[in-house]
């Protein structure tokens, strides 16, 4: 669940960054994809750390 939320936030943040820099539609798609993947990986690592801490 955390990974999907991270990916969605990454996509939204990437689109925002592309719009702020004056990008067109394909720029927004590329930024959204890259940020979505990066945020999903970060959320996956965070998820693994949380699970390992809970396991003891």
Topology:
Layout: H1 2-20, H2 25-55
- What's the pLDDT, averaged over the residues? 97
Overall, the morphology is: rod-shaped
* Structural domain tally: 1
Order of helices and strands: HH
C-alpha Rg, in Å?
Answer: 14 Å
Task: Give me a quick take on this structure.
The chain has helices at 2-20, 25-55. With 56 residues, it is mostly helical.
What features would you describe in this structure?
- The chain is built from two helices and no strands.
- The longest helix has 31 residues, at 25-55.
- With 56 residues, it is mostly helical.
- The chain has one domain (2-55).
- 89% of the residues lie in helices and 0% in strands.
- The two termini are 21 Å apart.
- The chain has helices at 2-20, 25-55.
Key phrases:
single chain; 56 residues; mainly alpha; 0% strand
